[in-house]
Amino acid sequence: MSSHPVDRAVFRKSSYSEGANGCVETCVRDSHHLIRDSKNPGRGSLTLERDVWAAVVSQIKQGAYDL
Q: What residue stretches are annotated with the DUF397 domain (predicted)?
């Protein structure tokens, strides 16, 4: 993990999360993916390297984080 300024970052929210509770937003900055809570964007973001982001997305698709 590393720190990148997010003042000019453009975050996106998935169209699948419209109306959903507890959404996240993502942004690509250089070779990193930034993730933040859509309800509290001013509280900061998590920065992941490209390979870590790919692993997280893969795990999500496999249902690893389903409740």
A: 9-61
Residue 59: CA count within 13 A, CB half-sphere: 9
Q: Which residue in 32, 28, 26 sits closest to 52, CA to CA?
A: 32
Cβ-contact 37, 43 below 8 angstroms: yes
Q: What is the pLDDT along the chain (67 residues), one digit of tens a residue?
A: 445 555 678 899 877 776 666 788 999 988 899 999 888 888 999 999 999 999 999 998 999 988 8
Q: Does 7 reside within a domain?
A: no
Pair of tokens at residue 39: 């309800």
Is residue 39 domain-resident? yes
In a domain, 67, yes or no: no
